[in-house]
Amino acid sequence: MKNQFVKTTIGLLAVLIMCVGASMAATTYRVTVDCNHSRIRNTFTGNRITVTFMDATSDVIESVSKDGIRNCAPGDAAFSITTDREVGYIDFRTNGNDAYYIDQWRLFKDGVLIHREERDNGMGWCLSTDPRDASGTWQAYTNGLCRTWIKFPVSGGTVPPATNKYKVTVDCRHARIRNTITRNRITVTFMDATSGVIESKTMNGITNCTKGDAAFSITTDREVGYIDFRTNGNDAYYIDQWRLFKNGALIHREERNNGMGWCLSTDPRDASGTWQAYTNGLCRTWIKFPV
Q1: What are the DSSP calls for 36-78, one per residue?
Q2: Which fold has domain 164-290?
Q3: CATH code reported for the domain at 25-153
């Protein structure tokens, strides 16, 4: 009888421990910040940016800091914690007056987007210990105010990912090169930050080099991290400059100095004659650019 009591007690304790463990399952929260804005410059910062995860009563769960953010690509500034508590607020702080611009931020829970914060009409937030930093071109997009800290409540429920329209335009004009158009199929592939393919767009021949005439567009809920250009033949195509737009705003431009550009062809020898001086003497079947 005694042994049976011991076995029953141990069994109950095991069940209790399993239940407690299940109720305290760890969750990973991640905040990503996009500080890109097509009409504002120097939106990154050399200051320390601290993101504090708080519960529903504003008690601190954990703080994560970065000493300077030099890349404004979406998701580059990421702050993560693992906790068994529910996040109710997100607090952003800076320790200096090198203003940092927040165009949009997102909160993920175990990889699922649960909250997104952004303003309309190209507006955002300015983090700086000097409120006067929101001057010049910044003023119109920050309500004329910089703050040392900004605290946001986190609403419940799952937020569907934002749908964005990306467009790549290509300029193939060059004053010293002729026949920069092509009869070949040109394919532009939009990729995410891990080089995973989002979507590809093609044009069967490009016969006009007017800036923006060759345009490739997609609509997606994923962030674009790379752009890949490809050709299927040896009728060389010249890329003098290309641009990437997100919802109509220019977010990336790629061009070379001194009149240089890129040659797309399955025959590397196509970069001869007058083309040689402006392509580093090389044509490639494909060229991949980070955004």
Answers
A1: --TT-----EEEEEEEEEE-TT--EEEEEEEEEE---STTTEE
A2: Lipoxygenase-1 (2.60.60)
A3: 2.60.60.20
Q: How confident is the prediction along the chain (291 residues), in pLDDT tens digits per residue?
A: 555 544 555 555 554 444 444 445 799 999 999 888 878 888 999 999 999 999 999 999 999 999 999 887 655 688 999 999 999 999 999 999 999 999 889 898 888 888 988 876 678 999 999 988 988 889 888 888 899 999 999 975 556 666 889 999 999 888 888 888 999 999 999 998 888 888 999 999 998 887 556 899 999 888 899 999 999 999 999 998 999 999 888 999 998 766 788 999 999 888 778 888 888 778 999 999 998
